[in-house]
Design a protein that fits this description.
3 domains; binds magnesium ion; alpha+beta; Heat Shock Protein 90; binds adenosine-5'-diphosphate; 13 strands
Length: 419
């Protein structure tokens, strides 16, 4: 077991300083915040010559320690492991707020073999240090299996503590930034509340009128009127529930729920939904599907949501056009991408309107008939699929919206988790 009395006597060497300086530089790179933590622990794994490094974070709601980021051959399996706060060496370090290492785990009573059993990994030596932020422990940083004769040393412990300070800051940065994103999304909704309230009031007025007519018709047993008014009431209910879903969608980040689907079948569902409206407004709906596109993995429900808005917008844009038509196309621009195009010959948009839409503020030209939430929600869903949304439009000629997403033939979750 470690004799900690030597620890404070270690004098830093120039090489050690280089490592700490490198870490400081990493912290300062303009890297995507989610990548930063992983890059830092990749670096620690390399310079400390260990088989793996991991970050466990304390979850106060569950009172558990959860593997948040890891390197090494078992990194993805590890991320599914949850520890009790008094379990194993991580638990000991968390409770005691003290660093430790052991090169002889078989004889260390604090070590729990449960994680090794789950990941089918053999831990020989381990170093762990608390992640401290303003004196409270937010988690534990661990290094496993030192690839050097004799195992971990006092020098390693000192470096590990230096690294843990950076890891804790990186974790805090991830939290702050993701919190900030949610807050600014909610703030954006807040800013547009007046417009939304107007939109809701409009729907409710329609609903109230409909309810009044239906009540009177029921009294008179006038089924013909009930049948005529009911679809209008249903349309208003759909509009209000869509608005609630959009607000929810926009307020937080979500991972796509990947299932295997045919892209064309999602488009066909949309066509079915718009069939009656197409007939009433004389809009021709055409399809042009690339039949070589295989079924692939995407979040079909949320893709449905995107297409519902894009096709709905095309219908709105076709209101005052002679021979209105909407074309739904699928394409495979390259082996790894699938694209869906919504093309209309409607009113089109000026560059100024396109710029306003892309600024991600809720912009609508439909007055109280629009919320301006549609395209921001579409863009968010597509971004969460690692895809892109292109807009091409010319006033008086029409518009083309192109969604492109990675073509996943295999389940991307399975691939990521190496199952
Ligand atoms: N296909 C289209 N043709 C012309 N204008 C469009 C089209 N799609 C979107 N727009 C413009 O973009 C605006 C924002 O659309 P969206 O975010 O869906 O909100 P909403 O439909 O509630 O107005 C619309 O109000 C309209 O001015
Ligand atoms: Mg819309």
């Amino acid at each position: 077991m470690t004799d900690f009395s030597n620890h404070k006597r270690y004098i830093m060497q120039p090489d050690d300083l280089n490592i700490i300086v490198e870490m400081c530089k990493l912290m300062n790179t303009a890297m995507h915040y989610e990548m930063l933590l992983q890059t830092i622990i990749d670096y620690c794994t390399r310079v400390m010559q260990v088989e793996g490094a991991s970050v466990l974070l304390y979850d106060d709601k569950q009172d558990k320690l959860i593997f948040h980021a890891a390197t090494g051959s078992k990194s993805e399996t590890l991320k599914k492991v949850i520890l009790n706060t008094d379990e194993g060496i991580a638990g000991w370090v968390f409770k005691h707020k003290e660093s430790m290492y052991s090169n002889d785990l078989e004889h260390d009573a604090r070590f729990s073999a449960r994680v090794d059993k789950f990941t089918r990994f053999r831990t020989h030596s381990l170093m762990a240090t608390p992640l401290l932020l303003e004196n409270s422990v937010i988690g534990v940083f661990e290094l496993v299996n030192k690839n050097a004769p004799g195992g971990f040393t006092e020098r390693d412990l000192m470096l590990c503590e230096g690294m843990a300070a950076h890891v804790a800051l990186a974790v805090e940065r991830v939290h702050l930034i993701s919190e900030n994103i949610s807050v600014s999304r909610l703030a954006a909704i807040g800013e547009t509340v007046a417009g939304l309230a107007h939109y809701i009031k409009n729907i409710l007025t329609g609903l109230e009128g409909g309810a009044h007519l239906i009540r009177a018709a029921l009294k008179e047993k006038d089924h013909a009127t009930v049948e005529k008014v009911w679809p209008m009431a249903e349309r208003n209910i759909d509009r209000i529930s869509m608005l609630a879903l959009d607000m929810l969608e926009f307020s937080k980040k979500r991972e796509p729920y990947y299932t295997r689907q045919s892209v064309a079948s999602v488009l066909n569902d949309i066509i079915q939904l718009f069939e009656a409206r197409a007939k009433t407004n004389n809009v021709k709906i055409e399809t042009d599907y690339d039949t070589s596109i295989p079924d692939c993995y995407f979040d079909s429900q949320r893709m449905h949501r995107c297409l519902l808005d894009l096709v709905g917008n095309s219908f709105d844009a076709c209101k005052k056009i002679s021979n209105p038509s909407i074309r739904l196309k699928t394409r495979r621009p390259d082996a790894h991408t699938v694209s869906i195009e919504v093309v209309d010959n409607g009113s089109g948009m000026t560059q100024e309107i396109i710029d306003k839409i892309l600024m991600s503020k809720f912009f609508s030209t439909k007055g109280s008939q629009g919320t301006g939430l549609g395209i921001p929600v579409v863009r968010k869903i597509i971004q969460e699929h690692n895809g892109t949304l292109e807009i091409h439009s010319e006033p008086g000629k029409g518009s083309t919206f192109i969604i492109s997403i990675p073509l996943y033939i295999d389940n991307p979750y399975k691939r990521l988790n190496n199952q």
